Amino acid sequence: METTQNIDRYLNQEMSATERENFELELNQNAVLQRELDTVRMIKKAVQTTALRAQVKQVHEAFIKDYEPEKVLEQEAKIRPLYPQRGRMYRGISVAAAVVAILVFVGGYQYASLNGETLYQDKFLPYKLPTMRSQNVKESALDSLYATGNFAAVITQIQSKKIKQPQDLFLLAMAHLNQKQFTQALVQFEALKTANAQRGVKYFEAEADYYEALALVGEKRYEEALDIFEKIYDDPTHLFHANVSQWDLWQLRMLSW
C-alpha cells in the first residue's frame, strides 16, 4: 500500500525534493518498482480518456439506433426511388463516413493530448554535481555557480576558457538545457562526444545520452530522441534505464508520426 501511495505521490508531483530524489534512486535499483510505476502511469493515462470513450460510445449507440437495417429495408420495399441503387450506396457511404469520423475523433484526441513540452517537463531531471568530495578539496567557482542555478554565469565562464575539459562541455550543455536553449545544448553535447572520442574516454556519456534526448524533444526532433531513448530502454545497465518507460517510447512514436 505504501509503495502505491508513493508512486501516486511521485506522479502527482507531491513529493518534496528529498523524497523525489530518494524515490528516483530506488527506481534506478529496483526493476519491480519501475514496472509498477509504468503500470500506474499507463492506468492514469487510460483514466484520463474514460470520459472521451463514454462520449464516443454515446455517438456510436445513437448512430446504431438511427440506422436500423430492418426499417431501412421495409421502407425500400414500399418506396422505389428512380435510382434504387443510389439509396443503398449512399447509406453505405454514410456508414463508412460515420465510422471514419469516430476514429478520427478518437485518434485526434489521443494525438492532441500529446505534447512535446509536457513530455520534456515530465522527463527532465535536474542534474546535481557529485557531492562526495574530500574535506580538503573546496568546491570550484564554476561548480558553485551551477549548483546555485546561475546558468548564464556558467556559460560565460566556460566559454571564456581556451581549453575545455569534458566536464566543462557537459556543464555548458546542461546550462543551456536548463535555460531551454536546446540548439546550443545539442552543439555542446556533440562537442563532448567528439572530445571523448579523441581522448578515448567516456566522461558523462550516460548523462549526455539522456539529456541530449531531452534537448531533441525540446527541438521537436522526436525520431532522433526516440532512437536514444530506445537505446537507453534496451540497456538495463544504462545509468538512466529506469527513467525511460514503454509509455515514453509510445509517446515519442506518436509525436514523431
Q: Number of DSSP strands?
A: 0
Order of helices and strands: HHHHHHHHHHHHHH
Radius of gyration: 27 Å
Portion in beta strands = under 5%
According to CATH, the fold-level topology of the largest domain is: Serine Threonine Protein Phosphatase 5, Tetratricopeptide repeat
The biggest beta sheet is recorded as: none
Shape: globular
Secondary-structure-based class equals mainly alpha
Mean pLDDT: 79
**Fraction in helix:** over 70%
Low-confidence stretches: 132-137
In CATH, the homologous superfamily of the largest domain goes by the name: Tetratricopeptide repeat domain
Q: Mind telling me the CATH class of the largest domain?
A: Mainly Alpha
| Amino-to-carboxy terminus distance | 38 Å
**Number of separate helices:** 14
What is the total domain count? 2
InterPro entries: TPR-like_helical_dom_sf (IPR011990)
Organism: Runella salmonicolor
Protein name: Tetratricopeptide repeat protein
Transmembrane segments: 89-112
Q: Key terms for this structure?
A:
2 domains, Serine Threonine Protein Phosphatase 5, Tetratricopeptide repeat, 257 residues, mainly alpha, 14 helices
Word description of this protein:
InterPro entries: TPR-like_helical_dom_sf. This is Tetratricopeptide repeat protein. By secondary structure, this protein is an all-alpha fold. It has 2 domains: 65 residues; 132 residues, Serine Threonine Protein Phosphatase 5, Tetratricopeptide repeat (Alpha Horseshoe). The protein is built from 14 helices and no strands. The longest helix has 30 residues. It is globular. About 2% of the residues have low confidence.
